[in-house]
Structure formats: C-alpha cells, structure tokens
Amino acid sequence: MTETKLLRYENFINGEWRSPASGNYIKLINPSDGTELALIARGNQADIDHAVASARHALSADWGKKTATERGRILHRISEKVLENKELLAKLESMDTGKPLAQAHADVIALARYMEFYGAAADKVHGDTIPYQNGFTVLSIYEPHGVTAHIIPWNYPMQILGRSLGAALAMGNAAVVKPAEEACLTILEFARIAAECSLPSGALNIVTGLGNEAGAALAEHSGINHISFTGSVATGEKIQAAAAKHTVPVTLELGGKSPQIIFADADLDNALTFLVRAGIQNAGQTCSASSRILIERSIYEEVIKKMSELYRSLDVGPANADLALGPVVSHRQKAIIESYLDMAKRDGLRIVAQGKLVENAPDNGAYVLPTLIRDVPVNHPLTREEIFGPVQVALPFDTEEEAINLANDTSYGLVCGIWTRDGARQFRLAHAIQSGQVFINNYGAGGGIELPFGGVKRSGHGREKGFEALYGFATLKTISVYHG
After folding, report:
1. What is the pLDDT of residues 435-450, one digit of tens each?
2. In whole angstroms, how far apart are CA 387 and each of 391, 418, 420?
3. Does 212 reside within a domain?
4. pTM surpassing 0.90?
5. What total of structural domains would you count in the chain?
C-alpha cells in the first residue's frame, strides 16, 4: 500500500515561499474524520527574524512609498480575488477547522468585505488642525506603527485575518502573521492571492508553527512595533508581558462568557433562533458566543421548553455535510469541552436537551453534542468559565437589577444581548452592563465588518473592525509650527 503524499505548505517571506529553517513540518488533521490533511512549516526564531527583516525592508521600499489611495486599490483587488477563489477557500476552511460549508462560505464573504472596507477607508483617515496660541499652526497626522505582528487563532482564520491585517495594511504597516498551528490553510492561500494582486514583497509575511516557538519569537521580537492577538486569556497575558519588554502597544481580543437577557415582554418568536444559534455557531468555538442565557422567571419554563425543542433538532456531523454543527477543531478541544459536561453530570446539573450525531459520522471525528443545561448556580464553573464549545447554561432572574448583576458577574465583558420591548429599559441596561458590544433585540456575535469590536475586563482591550481599527493600527503625531 503506497502512502499518500500530503500537500506541503512553506512559510511566505518577502514574497516567496521558503522552507522552514529547522527543516521540520507539522501535520494538520481533518477534525471531521481524523485523517491527515496537509503539512505546514514548523517555523522558529530564525524564520521570524527573516520575516521581520523583510517587513522592515518593505517599509523603506515599494510598499512604504505607496500612497493611501494606492494601498486602497491593492486591497480592493485582493477583495475581488478572494471572491474569485471562494469555493477553494471555503473548502479549505471547512476541512481545516471543521465548520460546516455554509459557515465557511460566509467567512470567505467576510474576508472579502474586510479588504473592500479597508481598501475604501485607506485614504479617509484625516488628521486635525488644533487651535493654539497666536503665531502657531498645530496639526495632527496619523502614521503607521511600522511592523505589525498578527497572531491569529484557529476558530475563524479568514475573518480574524481580515479584520486585523486589512486595517494594518490600509494604514501602511508591513505585517508578520503567525496563524494557529491547528488551522491555517486559508491564511496561506491568502498570501498567494495577495501576491497575485501585486501586494509588494515584504508587506505581508506568514510564518507557521507552534505557539511556544514561532508565536513566542514573534511576540518577543525587538523589531515589532505593534501586536494584534486574538485568543485565550492565558496566552494574551503572555503576549502582553512579552510586548512590555519593548514597550510595544498591544490589541488583545480575548475570551468571553457573553449573556443574552430575555425579559417577559420580549418578542420570543424573534429571539428564539438567536438564543440558540449564538451559542452553537461554529460548534460554540466563538469568543463572543452567547454561552449564558438569563431569563425572567415568569417566562423561564416557556423559554427553556422552546430552546430544548430547537436543540433536539440540531444535527452534528462532518463539515462537508453542511449540518447545523460540524466537529470541534481537534480531539484536544473535544476533551476540554467534555470535561465540563462530565463536571455537569457529576454535580447533578440538569441537562435538558442535546443535539444528535448523524449515523454516518466518521468514528474518529472530534464531535461534541450541543448541550443546554438549566438552573446552573451562579458560582459554578460552567457559569463562570469559557468552555469554548456548544454548551449553553440557563439561569432565571426576577428583577432588572438582578439581571444586570448576573450579566456583570464574570471576569469577562465582550458581548451582551438584551431582549425587551421597553425602550427605557433597553438603554438602562445598555449603559449598566460591562461589555464591549451590546445588541438590543438582536445578537450579532461580533456584528458586521463596520462595527468596532473588542472587550473590557479580561476580554481584552483595543478595538478591531470598523473605522476605529484604523486608529489602533496607527500612531498620532502632533506637529506645531511657529510662524509668528
């Protein structure tokens, strides 16, 4: 029996595909069936050094000489080329991450939209003139940081690359990207697409590898001027500590334990799909997933019953079957999620509904059943800790004040959903809840490309997405001219 030769991806540095300095590679595994998918370079300090040097050179070469309008036109071309490669990118994302094809297609559209949005915004970032003393003219201008580092997680490779890299390139930075070792094929394909659209060499560099090798080397590098990181709180703390050694600014988008709050006057028919979908989308592996459902006691049983019916209709299976849920990204992640479900059973929590695994699901897939658990104590780990899987907990409340306290009673503050027809209550809660985003009578799991996104407390700091991201990827310079 002959061994199938796996497709091998190299690092992308200075516009070229380069073998890793170590000569070593990492196998990517298809979470739907456990088969080997591809080989990616196992980058290390030497590869990061080359990538940073390439980015630094690009700032003084062709890329650094581009006007904002010229940078925008390149991003527009990339957007169009992404759409031309939609089927390929969606297929790779689906196989690599385990997400259903429909969700992978949506991520391709989002990536293209990020490039389009930031391409159009590149020449719209204006400074100010500042009133000052007589005889002076003072103005402020925005300039790129220089070399920006982008450490991308495995749950939404295309989307998070788009929101982070698009804004950085629009502002004239040169980038070094370190994607997650669990899922990164679409990011590598994006490098090919960008090169075909005449993005100058060195403006984008990609080094794959392990977090404690390539990722740590990038975060600690003295040639980096800004770091964008999306991922766990624990890793975010290490990133910020590494950046502090060189006094480098950091944008951190970390975890969440996001609530949706349902009052008795809510439009339940409209809310119901959002209540469930926001928790199980991408198999719950979403930082802004709605993992806590807070329900006014008078409608608690009704909402639990209706959510349970939806849960029982959810099918789980291989990504290419395009069901409600695919597998989680790896067996490691599956074990983490199932440890929480075991805890729920051990502690006697009430599991009221689960989805079902389809009959033809491969035996070695990393499948987890979506699970709804009711009456979970406020101080229980399932209520307080980010599970990062398709698990939602439901809790009742009696008063508006109690709802606010429950919503704020975690170390996170990323997203919140509020369901009520009472206009005054909508704004009272929107102001009272500690969260980077608040959705009223909807829940966007981060919302559209145009909406600034980020958290408070241990959910991180800084904002990506929307126009606000452009300011984060730039530094403000004040110029004071004395002319008498």
Report:
1. 999 999 999 865 689 9
2. 7, 22, 27
3. yes
4. yes
5. 2
